[in-house]
Specification:
- By secondary structure, the protein is of the alpha/beta class.
- The protein has ten helices and nine strands.
- The strands form two sheets. Strands 2-3-4-5-6-7-8 form a seven-stranded parallel beta sheet, covered by helices on one side. A two-stranded antiparallel ribbon has the order 1-9.
Length: 377
Amino acid sequence: MVVAASLVVVAGAVAGVLAAFDDGGRASDEAGPPEVSASPRPAPLPAVPTRSAPATTASAPPSPSPSARRTTTPAPSKPAKKREHRTAVAGRLYRHPDSQVLAWVRSHSGDPRHAVIASRIAEQPAAVWFADYSPDTVTARVAAVTSGGAALGRVPVVVPYTIPGRDCGGHSQGGAPGLDAYDAWIDRFAAGLGSDEVIVVLEPDSVAQAECLSASERADRFASLARAGRVLKAANPRARVYFDAGHSGWNAPGKQAAWLRQAGAASPESSDGIFSNVSNFHTTADEVAYDRRVLDALGGPAGLGAVIDTSRNGNGAPADGEWCDPAGRKLGRAPTMSTGEARIDAYLWVKLPGESDGCKGRPGTFTASYAYDLASS
């Protein structure tokens, strides 16, 4: 789901050009969403949770909301000293060619931010989200991603994000109209996984945010998630399926593990482990420690591991808990499946840097000014 570069920008003419781009309208600063779903934006929990209505397909899909929580966020770790930036793409992860950042890079070669965004964000592999309930097309869309990765010998990362009651009826509400429809959608999603390696980040927020559901609704959701894991792994035994662990500033490890166990995350027939920090900013060190505590409490086979979203966590989470495009953040560690950390299977860019949470640009849309801030911090 931590490398960032220091960049010296010549004052005067360049600064004026950048300001002109930021103030001159969306056409030069935003890229439209690609055919596949973009990674969406965070949003706070509603005061009174509601059931979601049947989803409608939007041009910019909604987003998980893992940062605006009623739990106390721990003090962020001191940011590490800036390191020399390395632009090399992770060896085995797949960069899908239809991302919003690549669309912006292709159409804005003359923009003074182009080189920074192209080398430090667009060259990195990132997850592909499927956030709209489109059962008739989802198999082909998933297959386009997985076959593209297989052709290059790379591992794609896909994110099904269509659970009913998504975001507890808040800003990112949507998904399938019911669990029966969701189960059928997962069947079609799984049919596109192919037979090569693929990482599945299964339903961000679906476990960590389950407090808003009644006990019976929670049990039904968890049963459906466990089924989803079994279906995905049965369709492609080489698929690696990870379940939602929230992040280190949210639920206590024991509580999160108990819910994860109910959702099938401890079963090798459903799960390869957990994911954390999706669309969030907590430091990699905090997430590594948290994920290990969750895995210890979860039990299950010793081979269960964790993947961490490092896309925007280079400076850690803001002390004030701000979740919407907070200032002062920077890129995290480059995506890799070689972490050097026990039980940590990968660092991933699940939330694509530059796709706005809704404050620096339209929700879910790639915003060049935000991307440039992250990449040049």
